[in-house]
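Re: that backbone. Tokens:
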């Protein structure tokens, strides 16, 4: 597991989902719920064991100023989810 800083960027300015980057490389899609403060993360296959839960939490906190995932945190490795949302992020932000 690496201790490199992760950065979360919202896909849409006031949205509730985005992409987590390690430097400039997208590594996961994350979606949070503003009502129950849950956090769901879909890592690119082979990436989930490289980062700690606290790294993921802090990357989202740094962007949103809310601590999502403390009571409900779901994580998976799913290239279909990751690729679709990574593509959407690129379309809207580049």
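Recovered sequence:
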């Amino acid at each position: 597991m690496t201790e490199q800083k992760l950065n979360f960027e919202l896909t849409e300015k006031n949205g509730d989902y985005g992409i987590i980057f390690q430097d400039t490389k997208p590594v996961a899609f994350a979606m949070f719920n503003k009502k129950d403060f849950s956090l769901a993360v879909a890592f690119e296959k082979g990436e989930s064991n490289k980062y700690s839960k606290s790294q993921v939490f802090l990357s989202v906190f740094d962007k949103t100023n809310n601590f999502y995932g403390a009571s409900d945190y779901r994580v998976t490795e799913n290239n279909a989810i990751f690729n679709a949302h990574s593509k959407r992020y690129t379309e809207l932000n580049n």
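The longest strand covers residues 25-32. The chain has two helices and five strands.
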